[in-house]
């Protein structure tokens, strides 16, 4: 199966009131773990990577990995650039076969954000590539997390509507109390704000910072238009926890065995989010 444009996965989810989970996939092992679980649960998924992952594997390498593994796992999947920081990186990812790109100018002035995303849409749409933008700014909970700014700025519904209309983006990330990273205390979502955004924006919405969010919040957010939920920190935590257990038990030796042991915990995270988002059984 070929990689799908992300829009082809999000629009049915948006209309059907479920979400497609988007998982950080930084190497072949993590990518295969995600696709294995998605196949078992018959769920569409999104494989995402960005500047924080490209120090390990380039967009070209990750593109080759995803395309090759999809020949083995017949499940609808998109390959997404998360938090792209330049148009040059967007171009590189499109060249590498990414089927969706995000240029994150959310901390920049409104006019600059709009102009940049319009340029990305003009570049990507003729190639069938989906475009995600962000209005308002989703911050982060600690200094370890690589995505997001130091603080969050909540999305104004009127700005979201103007932004979506002016840019022509296919999906819109919004800030309603969510943040990147593992929450140090439970988040408080502004659902009234989300409901207003949902009524004014006619494209699927995206929740960044899914890791650690209360399940009841996820379900309510999905019912209000969140069609994509990003999960990264929980996968990293599952890996770190497994490595720490192996180390504590004196099992750190043959590295492939140690790294392989982490896949079980990561698979559990993937299964949890596929189920929680309502994507299980939705693979066409």
Written overview of the protein:
- This protein has 284 residues and is α/β, with parallel strands linked by helices.
- It has one domain: TIM Barrel.
- The chain contains ten helices and eight strands.
- The protein has an eight-stranded parallel β-barrel with strand order 1-2-3-4-5-6-7-8, surrounded by nine helices.
- 50% of the residues are buried.
- Mean pLDDT is 92; it is low at 143-148.
Q: Which helices and strands occur, and which strands form pairs?
A:
Elements: H1 6-16, E1 20-24, H2 28-41, E2 45-49, H3 59-69, E3 77-84, H4 87-95, E4 100-103, H5 110-124, E5 130-135, H6 157-167, E6 171-174, H7 191-200, E7 205-207, H8 215-223, E8 226-231, H9 233-248, H10 255-277
Parallel strand pairs: 1-2, 1-8, 2-3, 3-4, 4-5, 5-6, 6-7, 7-8
Helix pairs in contact: 2-3, 2-10, 4-5, 5-6, 6-7, 9-10
Q: What's the gyration radius in Å?
A: 18 Å
Helix content: 40-55%
From the 3D structure, determine the CATH topology: TIM Barrel
Q: Under the CATH scheme, which class?
A: Alpha Beta
Could you report the average pLDDT, rounded to the nearest whole number?
A: 92
* Biggest sheet overview: 8 strands, parallel, barrel
Sheet/helix structural class: alpha/beta
For the secondary structure, the number of strands is 8
Q: What are the low-pLDDT stretches, counting only 5+ consecutive residues below 50?
A: 143-148
* CA-based shape: globular
Strand content: 5-15%
């Amino acid at each position: 199966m070929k990689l799908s444009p992300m829009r082809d996965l999000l629009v049915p989810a948006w209309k059907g009131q479920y979400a497609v989970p988007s998982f950080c996939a930084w190497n072949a092992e993590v990518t295969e773990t995600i696709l294995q679980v998605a196949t078992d649960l018959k769920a569409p998924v999104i494989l995402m990577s960005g500047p924080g992952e490209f120090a390990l594997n380039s967009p070209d390498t990750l593109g080759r990995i995803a395309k090759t593994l999809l020949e083995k796992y017949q499940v609808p999947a998109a390959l997404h650039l998360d938090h792209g920081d330049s148009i040059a990186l967007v171009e590189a990812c499109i060249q590498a076969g990414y089927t969706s790109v995000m240029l994150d100018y959310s901390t920049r002035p409104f006019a600059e954000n709009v102009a940049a995303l319009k340029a990305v849409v003009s570049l990507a749409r003729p190639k069938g590539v989906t475009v995600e933008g962000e209005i308002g700014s989703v911050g982060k909970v600690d200094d370890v997390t690589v995505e997001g700014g130091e603080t969050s700025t909540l999305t104004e519904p009127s700005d979201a509507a103007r932004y979506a209309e002016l840019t022509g983006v296919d999906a819109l990330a919004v800030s309603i109390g969510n943040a990147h990273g593992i929450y140090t205390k439970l988040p408080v979502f502004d659902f009234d704000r989300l409901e207003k955004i949902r009524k004014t924006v006619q494209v699927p919405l995206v929740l960044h910072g899914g890791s650690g969010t209360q399940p009841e919040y996820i379900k309510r957010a999905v019912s209000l238009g969140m069609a994509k939920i990003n999960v990264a920190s929980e996968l990293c935590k599952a890996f770190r926890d497994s490595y720490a257990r192996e180390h504590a038990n004196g099992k750190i030796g043959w590295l492939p065995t140690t790294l392989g042991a982490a896949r079980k915990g990561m698979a559990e995270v993937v299964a949890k989010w596929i189920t929680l988002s309502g994507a299980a059984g939705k693979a066409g």
